[in-house]
Design a protein that fits this description.
The chain is an all-beta fold. Helix content is 0%, strand content 61%. The strands form 2 sheets. Strands 2, 4, 5, 6, 9, 10 and 11 form a 7-stranded mixed beta sheet that branches. The chain is elongated.
Length: 119
């Protein structure tokens, strides 16, 4: 079982920055990809950014050049640096990972952290 704990959300003015963190804990052999998703009220949950265990990254077009995903494998932690935030970035941000547990791969989700950007 893997538990994901997000932190770093909050209220920020447009143009500001926030840094989200997500720490994985529990009994697992390895973490494979780690990612951030977001879900705004009334909308589906969408991928924001992902990063493989080797460090390859992928971003949604809407955040390219503004957000940076990174990870610290030694700390089982993934980060999302968010700059030049806009009101459209307002959403609940969820951490997600795929982990190898007892020889099988499972997907896990965090509880989410609220990010609110005021205009």
């Amino acid at each position: 079982q893997v538990q994901l704990l997000e932190s770093g959300g909050g209220l920020v003015q447009a143009g500001g920055s926030l840094r989200l963190s997500c720490v994985a804990s529990g009994r697992f052999f390895s973490l494979k990809s780690m990612a951030w998703y977001r879900q705004a009220p009334g909308k589906q949950r969408d991928l924001v950014a992902s990063i493989t265990s080797g460090g390859s990254t992928n971003y949604a077009d809407s955040v390219k050049g503004r957000f940076t995903i990174s990870r610290d494998n030694a700390k089982n932690t993934v980060y999302l640096q968010m700059n030049s935030l806009q009101p459209d970035d307002t959403a609940v941000y969820y951490c997600q990972t795929t982990a190898s547990v007892l020889g099988r791969t499972y997907a896990y989700w965090g509880q989410g952290t609220q990010v609110t950007v005021s205009s």
